[in-house]
Design a protein that fits this description.
The complex is a heterodimer of chains A (213) and B (232). Chain A is mainly alpha-helical. Chain A has 10 helices and no strands. Helix content of chain B is 41%, strand content 25%. Classes of the chains: A mainly alpha (213), B alpha+beta (232).
């Protein structure tokens, strides 16, 4: 039978054997997340679906927590997944886990969306809503949304000032400069609080991680 | 930006709490600094946990459909009808509208993907190490695969290919041994060349092939004999 002009590569059939096919499918559960991203970088839509199913809850929940609005959270989640689809090739396994890469990307995009939202709402950055009390309301509200016990207790080991700066940055989507404006303190002070606070959190969280393993 | 300046800002960088300029400066420094890369990786373990600690809520099922439909449409496909200059002008227009507060995030994302893809293809065409392979087979077509093995950049250039019919799409495959890997589905546009950028380590593959698969999303593995093939 003629199969058409030069359609097989080096005499081998173009369709993979059943064995290879099974391996490809069966490995899904144990698939390393890094492998998943490598496959997505090669435009493997099945790998992308698997990634969606693994991360959609985490990504959507993070977006919803920051944006506070299901419609906006869905829009940004969609944007995040498109970024993953196009940018998966930028993930470098030697520079951290796939999960931390995905969540960092998701946080970045969500913060961008939050800042666009604020520009539209023309929210005053320094005056009015917070006054001398700084970010107390925002911090309390954000902390109520933190349900993970490990992270909650790690945050509670920080000084109130460090906690405030980190919570305003991560869950509030504010830049260091904006935090300084809101709290009416020097930028240098915010930088120090964020740096020291993150060091301390890392000591708590990353050490805790090692103990669990 | 010096290493000292960058490393002082890494915690805020991991929290995405820098102004755009600072962020770009830290990012640029990071490219060539293994120490900062390691430090950022460990800070991202912290932000990963901050992100995972929020109350978990399942997204509505329609999000899944919207996301999967979004990747099938391959917005990075370049059509050459009106020229790339028009795309650049459109980008400026979109930026103006965005500045006026019009919600355009999705359009901007799609457009920036297309512009980035065009940039990649331009870089590819300019590369002295680029090679060009015609795809031949059972259908009359003018389709070439251009690729630069040194940089892992490639693009399928479809100048002429008949419509596959409403029920079908063309699917591009990179073939490593007997294992085809999908590089996306596409539909030719009548009278308009299209370009599909492909990023891959081309030393792994011996050929590129195109098969006709079911619309809209194609197949996991080829279900029909390829209609076009080119050896790399």
């Amino acid at each position: 039978m003629r199969t058409g002009a030069s359609l097989a590569v080096g005499e081998r059939p173009i369709r993979p054997s059943a064995v290879e096919w099974q391996m490809e499918r069966g490995a899904t559960q144990a698939d390393h997340e890094a492998t998943l991203l490598a496959r997505i970088a090669r435009r493997d839509a099945t790998a992308f679906e698997t990634l969606y199913d693994r991360y959609s809850r985490a990504i959507y929940s993070l977006a919803l927590r920051l944006l506070g609005n299901p419609q906006a959270a869905q829009e940004v989640a969609q944007e995040i997944f498109l970024h993953i689809w196009r940018g998966a090739g930028e993930f470098i396994p030697a520079r951290g886990s796939a999960r931390s890469w995905v969540l960092s990307l998701a946080h970045h995009r969500t913060v961008d969306a939050l800042r666009r939202q604020r520009v539209r709402a023309v929210e005053p950055l320094a005056e009015g809503d917070l006054g001398a009390g700084g970010g107390a309301d925002v911090v309390d509200q954000a902390l109520r949304g933190v349900e993970g016990a490990t992270v909650r207790s790690a945050l509670m080991t920080l000084s109130p000032e460090q906690r405030e700066a980190i919570v305003l940055a991560y869950y509030g989507g504010y830049t260091q400069q904006e935090i300084a404006n809101r709290l009416r303190i020097p930028l240098g002070t915010v930088k120090t609080r964020i740096r020291d606070g993150m060091q301390r959190l890392r000591g708590q969280l990353v050490q805790g991680e090692e103990e669990r393993q | 930006m010096t290493h000292e300046q960058a490393s002082e800002l890494l915690a805020a960088f991991a929290l995405h709490a820098l102004d755009r300029d600072e962020e770009q400066a830290v990012s640029a420094h990071m490219q060539s600094c293994a120490q900062c890369q390691d430090e950022l990786a460990s800070l991202r373990e912290v932000t990963e946990q901050l992100g995972s600690a929020v109350g978990q809520v399942s997204p509505p099922p329609r999000l899944r459909e919207a996301v999967l439909a979004g990747i099938r449409s391959r917005p990075d496909v370049i059509t050459l009808r009106r020229g790339w200059v028009v795309a650049a002008a459109a980008a400026v227009l979109l930026l103006v509208l965005a500045a006026l507060g019009v919600s355009l995030s999705r359009q901007l994302t799609a457009l920036s993907a297309r512009l980035a893809a065009q940039e990649r293809v331009l870089a590819l065409l300019a590369a002295p190490s680029a090679r060009s392979v015609p795809l031949t087979g059972t259908v009359a077509a003018a389709v070439r695969f251009v690729y630069d093995p040194d940089r892992g950049l490639g693009a399928l250039v479809v100048s002429d290919l008949r419509d596959p019919g409403r029920e079908s799409v063309y699917q591009l495959w990179l073939i490593a041994g007997a294992q085809p890997e999908s590089a996306g589905v596409f539909r030719p546009l009548p009278g308009q060349p299209i370009v599909l950028p492909v990023t891959a380590d081309f030393s792994r593959y011996q050929a590129v092939a195109i098969s006709i698969e079911r619309a809209p999303s194609g197949a996991l593995q080829p279900t029909t004999t390829p209609v076009l093939l080119g050896k790399l």
